[in-house]
Amino acid sequence: QVQLVESGGGLVQAGGSLRLSCAASGSIFRIFSINVMGWYRQAPGKQRELVAGITRDSSTNYADSVKGRFTISRDNAKNTVYLQMNSLKPEDTAVYYCNAKAGISDYWGQGTQVTVSS
Hints:
The protein is mainly beta. It has one helix at about 30-35; strands spanning about 1-5, 10-15, 20-25, 35-40, 50-55, 60, 70-75, 80-85, 95-100, 105-110, 110-115.
């Protein structure tokens, strides 16, 4: 099993920045099997959506709505993935979830609230 623990959410004014972190722990075998980590978000009344993803060799992809503002990165030695969020907008308000894919297994963090005030 893999446990994902997120941190870094909070309340920020529009135009501000936040940095989310997600640390993976648990089975060493499973952690080494993780090939993709990513961030999803879910706003009230909306479906969960992919924000950004990163592979083990650091290939990245982003939702169109965050391109140029958010940056995903990972530190394989620390089993940690980061999401740097700049130029935040009120529409970025959501619960942000960390995700890790290892083979056919999907792991999720508990979520961290990001609120952007106008």
